[in-house]
Design goal:
The chain is an alpha+beta fold. The chain has two domains: about 1-50, no CATH class; about 60-145, 3-Layer(aba) Sandwich (His-Me finger endonuclease fold), CATH 3.40.1800.10. The protein has seven helices and six strands; from the N terminus they run E-E-E-E-H-H-H-H-E-E-H-H-H.
Length: about 170
């Protein structure tokens, strides 16, 4: 049992969050979970731009931490991969400088985590939309390359012609 200094209640140790610091002898935080959550919410409301400002202070460090945490790729490895691809998207040859955040997405297999290459946002979204399914992409290519079936203009030809004349 432990007493929360904020609310004054004595609660079970399970009602207190564990510390991340293994060097400390006390392994729980001083405030109970509800009081800690409330304090965190108040702090975020008082400091709404903290994360954005922290990121802006050191964009390179933040980018590397993100790459390492999410893909286990260092900035040096990212740069080598980009150089191997000629500085362009692995699918459509778009430039990194033209991307919304001026960086490529790291494409990876969601099952194995293996990094496959760097992609622009549209190409990354395209692969995500088909769940990385090569058969679906092949079917889409066949669909785009095929000639229009003679039945389709007969079925909707009048609507298309009427729309084209109205424009």
């Amino acid at each position: 049992m432990k007493r929360c200094p904020k609310c004054g209640e004595t609660k079970s140790l399970t009602e207190f969050r564990l510390r991340n610091d293994p060097k400390r002898t006390v392994q729980t935080v001083s405030r109970c979970k509800p009081c800690t959550t409330q304090a965190m919410r108040e702090w975020v409301l008082k400091n709404p731009n903290y994360e954005k400002e922290r990121y802006q202070r050191d964009k390179v460090k933040s980018r590397e931490k993100h790459l390492l945490r999410k893909y286990r790729v260092s900035l040096q490895e990212y740069d080598r991969l980009k150089l191997m691809q000629g500085g362009v998207c692995a699918i459509c040859d778009a430039n990194e400088a033209d991307q919304p955040h001026k960086v490529f997405h790291v494409d990876h297999c969601h099952k194995t985590g293996v990094v496959r290459g760097l992609l622009c946002a549209p190409c990354n979204q395209m692969l995500g939309a088909v769940d990385d399914n090569a058969a679906t992409l092949k079917a889409a290519i066949l669909y785009l390359e095929r000639r229009v079936s003679p039945q389709i203009p007969e079925l909707i030809g009048r609507a298309i012609l009427a729309w084209e004349h109205a424009a």
